[in-house]
Structure to design on (141 residues):
């Protein structure tokens, strides 16, 4: 009978600490409510304040903590600030929590914006051409 391999406890410890830190970011009931509201997509601070019944100072404090932990990101449009979830791990965790505690899987289509496609690189098929500027302002190829 083969003996099971011993796991590297430092790697496991590091991953456990990272997971613990990540979950602590969502462990506050107000932060959890905010993050769950953002599963539906980007929301303004005013909308979050009204819909969640949180007072602006408390809401701003919790949004700042979520922003510092990298779970949400903000964008400003004139005088309004909009927030959205920026971490795919948060979407997965919140969806699981929603399913366990609310009994249904949320619609996640607008939770995290699709990554922007990187522009295609142009392929150059011809040799490079350089111009030489001659005295008097004339150029020669």
């Amino acid at each position: 009978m083969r003996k099971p391999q011993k796991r590297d406890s430092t790697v496991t410890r590091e991953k456990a600490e990272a997971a613990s830190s990540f979950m602590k970011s969502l462990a506050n009931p107000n932060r959890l409510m905010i993050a769950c509201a953002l599963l539906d997509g980007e929301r303004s601070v005013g909308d979050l304040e009204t819909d969640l019944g949180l007072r602006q100072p408390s809401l701003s404090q919790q949004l700042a903590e979520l922003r510092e932990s990298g779970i949400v990101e903000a964008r400003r449009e004139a005088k309004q600030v909009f927030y959205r979830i920026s971490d795919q791990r948060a979407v997965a965790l919140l969806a699981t929590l929603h399913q366990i505690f609310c009994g249904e899987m949320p619609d996640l289509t607008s939770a995290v914006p699709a990554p922007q496609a990187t522009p295609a690189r142009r392929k150059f098929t011809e040799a490079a051409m350089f111009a030489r500027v001659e005295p008097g302002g004339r150029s020669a190829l």
